[in-house]
Amino acid sequence: MTxxxxxxxNIRLLDDLAKKNTPIHALHPLVKLLTTVIYxxxxxxxxxxxxxxxxxxxxxxxxxxxLAELPLMPIVHRLLMVLPLIIGIGILNPIIDNxxxxxxxxxxxxxxxxxxxxxxxxxxSVSAGIILIATTGMNRLAVAMRMLKIPKIFVLxxxxxxxxxxxxxxxxxxxxxxxxLRAPNQNGISKNNWGSFAGQxxxxxxxxxxxxxxAMLLRGFAMEYHVGTIxxxxxxxxAYFTGWSLFFVIAKIYNLPLFLESIxxxxxx
Amino acid sequence: MKALRAGINQYNDSSVTHEGKMDITxxxxxxxxxxRDATMHMADALISPTVGFTMMAVTAGLAAYSIKKIxxxxxxxxxxxxxxxxxxxFAAQMINFTIPATGSSxxxxxxxxxxxxxxxxxxxxxxxxxLLIQALFFGDGGLLAYGCNVFNMGFYTCFIAYPYIYKxxxxxxxxxxxxxxxxxxxxxxxxxxxxxxxxxxxxxxGKTELPFNTFVMLMQPIHLAIGIVEGLVxxxxxxxxxxxxxxxLEKVSAGEAFGALYLNRVLKGFLVAAIIVxxxxxWFASANPDGLEWSMKQVAGxxxxxxxxxxxxxxxxxxxxxxxxxxYNFKVTDDLSTSENDxxxxxxxxxxxxxxxxxxxMTFALAGLIGLIISLIKRRExxxxxx
Lengths: 269, 387
Prior knowledge:
heterodimer, A: 2 domains, two-stranded antiparallel ribbon, 11 helices, 2 strands, flat, B: mainly alpha, Arp2/3 complex 21 kDa subunit ARPC3, two-stranded antiparallel sheet, globular
């Protein structure tokens, strides 16, 4: 998100994706939110050395993303932005936890296990979050939040922030572009202009907010943000929620890859 | 024309320069990889459900209190203003400020700026919105770590640094010097506390092998540098706003627009929430450090004993952590997880030499197969639909 235009593009892309019409998009937003939270909680509850039990959890983002017809690249792109942080923190694990273990006759530091466990967790958690927003959209997610009894004032404020971001970013993009065109070969905004650059933006922001608010009032804004009607929870939602929850619980308790392996090796024998 | 071209290139390349130049210390460059203080965004992968839900509850408590305060105190007009300022900070976090004499550039976190312009309650809520949008749309932080992030970046700036430092310095009136000092000190302190929280939350979660000392020594200095930049930028912006539109700041510092702060109540509420949730969750986790399994397996029997045990551990852990012993390396969390994992881990992976590996590969193969089947079905649906 270092690049402004990128951030703007990303928000719009996710907005567009949320407008698709697939079975996943049609699910109730609250059901999707709760399933994602349960998923994250179960994944993060695994200990540092458990890798094989963690593997079946890649099914959730994979299957949901495919059913929702989400493009792969934006998700991978986000992962590439976030992964360096996790790799940075985790890469010391093999050095610090250097007890040697042997797998398939190869010796390596036990820290690699914790590193890979972190790595998998990061990939699945980030993609689960992006999938949630890309299949639900901000407005429908706000409905889910209201159903969770999150106060209206916060949800309203959140939606307004979200709406204003696109408005402001365009304004801001023009300012940065103008500045960088007048200051070639310079990395960022020079110190003399820090206050006036950002300050100008903030004053424009205030004025804009005032105008937008007046316009909203004229159109009958009364502290309500209407997001349309949301259908009731139906059998599909119920099946989605219970199906995945059951899978998470089973995969948490039983070692599915090992089970799979025993079936295969049993057949071979 | 040449200059124009160079300007465009520089603009287009800004993402590259951002990432490369912010490496203040080479060995910890990843901490500030994305320029914005990426360090302060806890990732889901780094926390345990216990820590995540505890902090979520604490944050929810703080947010509920803030909402109650602003509902009583402010006029409705301020809600859109909060939204707009939240969006402003979101955008301002992407401004690349050149740090003089270093050739690197820094960014704004925005906590202090939001509080200075909106007051603590509205500032905290605006920060919470920004972080939620970042978590959802950009994977900065995560849903489970959301509470941690709001706390680390919102609580310390809005409820500690603002009332005790910013307000204290500016109480006798605003002038450039006061604004500079207050913004600088509160930004630095706010960030130091936040960074320390990141360390504690990560270590409580037991997801990284980094010893306490090393982690602290990595996090605090780098956040001192980030804090100074943040302070300078915040001071410049507030100064500019103060000169151009003094009434915006005077209203807030007089507490007219957004209500005065009663910190005692905030702190009490926070403490109660932390104890209840922390206690409840560690009770859940006590039957098995892996949390959720508890609800599936042994509900009866062990609970009473392990509750007191776990509570005791929790509190002694907190005590030890606050005591700040130099050679302390988080034995409690370590012991918990290693002893637990040691018992399960060889059985899972080292029983036989190949065991687990084949299963892992099979899982991936199965995942690939399912993916293939779904996309084939989807494609067939598309084809039949287009006919």
